[in-house]
Design a protein that fits this description.
By secondary structure, the chain is of the alpha+beta class. Helix content is 17%, strand content 29%. It is built from four helices and 13 strands. It has helices at residues 3-18, 185-190, 198-205, 209-217, and strands at 34-35, 42-44, 47-49, 77-82, 96-102, 107-112, 118-124, 127-132, 140-145, 150-153, 158-163, 169-175, 183-184.
């Protein structure tokens, strides 16, 4: 993928978020660089903050989004996140980014971001995408995206992307939180630790209990 395409994608995402209100609270100072050591730090919104006078350029820097993610897995996709865990200077700023790579027929499976709306722009390939509205309607809103197309996934709603093309696909996503979180539905329901009582899942999904125990014993891949 050309470097210029990455710049265009990130610029589009940044422009979109400049017109949006972040889901995280507005910061009360210029920045709050996250640190893991509580010594000489203040706990703010999930992270301890470095004394601002010790902030450095590397606290606000990440390199590598030009590199494709490894899609050699059972889902055929790889998410490369750039959130507060990768750039500590994002703490409290209410924005983050991700690159998603898809092999042919690769899937970013149904999941939610509990703390962020997502805006997705496709750079390469053809993606079938969609989200499901909340109860009681549970309406599927879906479309097919081509290079240059943009789609929104509202905060907290289950959504997915599926590469329906015969070539690799690449997309970039902007998220309205420095720590958006991700809950992959199948992993959470059938791969929880400890496992959910099979009787609960059998009744909830109208499945035979043996089918539930089989699903719980399966390996649920994390593509993040």
């Amino acid at each position: 993928m050309e470097g210029g395409q990455i710049v265009v994608a990130i610029s589009l995402l940044a422009l979109a978020f400049s017109f949006a209100t972040a889901s995280d609270p507005n910061p009360l100072q210029d920045f709050c660089v996250a640190i893991k050591d509580a010594k000489n730090g203040v706990f703010v919104n999930g992270k301890f903050c470095k004394d601002p006078k010790f902030a450095k350029a590397e606290d606000f820097f990440f390199s590598g989004l030009n590199m494709p993610g490894n899609t050699s897995n059972q889902l055929g996709s790889k998410v490369t996140p750039v959130n507060v865990e990768q750039i500590p200077g994002l703490n409290t700023l209410g924005i983050s980014l991700a690159r998603i790579d898809y092999a042919p027929y690769g899937l970013n499976p149904p999941h939610t971001h509990p703390r962020a709306t997502e805006i997705l722009v496709v750079l390469e390939g053809t993606l079938y995408v969609g989200f499901v509205t909340s109860n009681p309607d549970n309406r599927l809103i879906t479309t097919v995206l081509y290079p240059g197309d943009v789609f929104i996934f509202p905060v907290g709603l289950i959504h997915f992307q599926f590469n329906i093309g015969k070539i690799n696909a690449v997309a970039f996503a902007g998220l309205s939180s420095h720590n958006p979180g991700v809950i992959t539905i199948a992993n959470a329901v059938f791969g929880s630790k400890p496992p959910i009582n099979p009787d609960v899942l059998a009744k909830a999904f109208l499945l035979d209990k043996n089918a539930v125990t089989y699903l719980q014993s399966s390996f649920w891949w994390n593509n993040n």
